[in-house]
UniProtKB/TrEMBL annotation:
Keywords assigned: Transcription, Transcription regulation
UniProt protein name: HTH deoR-type domain-containing protein
HTH deoR-type domain mapped to chain residues: 186-241
GO molecular function: DNA-binding transcription factor activity
PANTHER family, per database record: GLPR-RELATED TRANSCRIPTIONAL REPRESSOR, SCHLAFEN ALBA-2 DOMAIN-CONTAINING PROTEIN
Pfam families xrefs: HATPase_c_4, HTH_DeoR
Keyword Transcription regulation: yes
Keyword match Transcription: yes
Amino acid sequence: EAVEIIDHLDITGPLPKMIDETTKFFLRNMKSAMRIEGFSRVEITEYPLESLREAVRNSVIHRDYAIEGATVMVKMFRDCVVIESPGLLPRPLTLERIRSLNYRPVSRNPIIARAMFDMKFMEERGGGIRRMHDEMLNHGLKEPDFNYDSGYFAVTFHGPGEKILDIHPKKVTIVHAIEPAKLALLNERQKGILKYLLEYGRIASEECTRHFNIARDTANRDFRRLIEKGLIEKRGIGRATHYVLKER
């Protein structure tokens, strides 16, 4: 149940501005986390951004503009996002048909729909509900809920809450990846140093000797090897010397 609201946005203005402002809103409020997968550091986002953007596009295109003073509203809660559009579904669409994904597309505002398509804000007309559904499932989350709320059509995206690292999206953002060809030239301890850096970001000689139970000379040889292969770089001087993954 959505109880703890984090932020909200009333969508107004020209079409391009509405899409741009809501994208910034989502990026500002969505949580993300890093996870190590093999020899890559990947970023996991709380929601699939494209699914949320699709819901906003649909709301702007299909809302009932005859309802004066009403706006499309986006509400970000601790564990879900709710996007509310003024008006009910245009006939003959029903909630049951939308939920079953068995419907023929109907546009209440065909001129706006055409404008959005011409401005490249839409890839395909009529497939928005299906795209929202598929993007959420592919992100490892529950499919969106569709309901009415006080004269508004509401789409609810259920997020992972505090368990963001428990989801396993099919598509992730690779923040740092180590090439297999370079890994093949390293011993297991040197690979272990890279994994340590992927997880913790930095390592010094003392940490390396303690963590891998090796002599300082051995640690320094490993560091030199990894520097030669272009995988890490040395930072700091004297006692502040440490090593980090080389920027791509």
